[in-house]
Amino acid sequence: MTTGSHNSLPPQHHSRTRARARRALAAAAAVLLAVGLAAPAAAAATPAPVPGSPTSPTERTNSRGELLAVTPLARLTPAQVAAYARDFGVDTATVRHGVAAYRLTYRTVTPQGAPTTATGLFALPEGGPHRLAVVSDTHGTMVNRDDAPSTAGDFGKLTPYLHASAGRAVAAPDYLGLGLGPGLHPYMDTRSAVSASLDLLRASREAGRRLGRPLTGDVYATGFSQGGQVAMALGRELSRGADRHLRLRGLAPVAGPHDVRGAELPAILDGRVDERSAVFYLSYYLTAANRLHPVYRDPAEAFRAPYAGVVEGLFDTRHTEEQVVTALPGTVRELLTDSFLRQLDRPGPGLSAALEATDGGCDWRPAAPVRLYASTGDRDVPIANSRSCAAALAAHGVRAPVLDQGQDAGHFATLRAAAPQIVRWFDGLDR
Predict the structure, then answer these.
(1) What is the pLDDT of residues 137-152, one digit of tens each?
(2) Which domain holds residue 93?
(3) 3-state secondary structure 323-340
(4) In terms of domains, do 121 and 149 share one?
């Protein structure tokens, strides 16, 4: 459910090397910045106000998706986009245009429906048609707010740049509580992830108009890991008419945890998920879910000492992934109490409510075509999640192929292999 590493790593080392991978990615980004691909640091740190944007501190729910600020981030030539993708081991044959990237600040709502703000990355091709379809590209698990697409200098921008360079606009939400958005991130809360993604699409329509590249309203939804689950649920809302200006044209989630209760948790319990990955995901999920559902009354009910005293503070959006992973134990049995460990197999009312709020994104009948990308070699989000999604869609009469990237493809390698395939598929649907 996490974002990608730079190198192809054995599955058992994925969690242990996430932080080292991020340092390598940051170093690559620093090289790009040094050759002038990004806007000055001051411009990135302080959002530039959009002419005519309201400045009143009073926010209203009916202003969801209202664009508040546009901040230029980067301008890349086609050669620079190709070099960026090549550095991460991604096929560059689909790169046709340069890319202009911006951070959008916009109004959205909290999980409780209260007004708030969020940020996201908006990328435009330098060239191509005047009016553009848009790709909603939703990212994987992140614990540090600075790793979000609109603030990161690494892997978080890779697939947005790849899609934009093929000739479509891209809206990549940071989600709530990441990037420059206030508060904590409600990790794996489907409803708020979808509302933040939908409201960024609304803000992107206005940003495209102001930047001289109007959007057609055609939406292609994709996402990796956590973002794959978000993409499916976003597609469902678009198909239900969530916004009359937006039309779903295709869905391509990658390695999404589509069935946490029926596929991901059983894989955690039987060892198909790498132990360190399982510890990381469970800690994040349980502490975030408990803020919205009564999963536990006291951390000591779920977590063993000494972790009960520190686990909630680790996910404050300020700790790095390295800090979180090194502060947690190596196994699920060391992390969870015996009684709570049993709940993973037979969830109590609070955990059941949290799982219900997470799952179900595949339980509908898409009119747009769907392709599911996954790998039998994935030990973070097993392919059983995508197969469960395909079965749920089939129950509604929809055939969605599961495109297996192979036994040798781990979680991150799945995205590297799938991303250019998805660009080509969207190209075909866009004709």
Answers:
(1) 999 999 999 999 999 8
(2) 12-40+69-259+360-430
(3) HHHHHCCCCHHHHECHHH
(4) yes
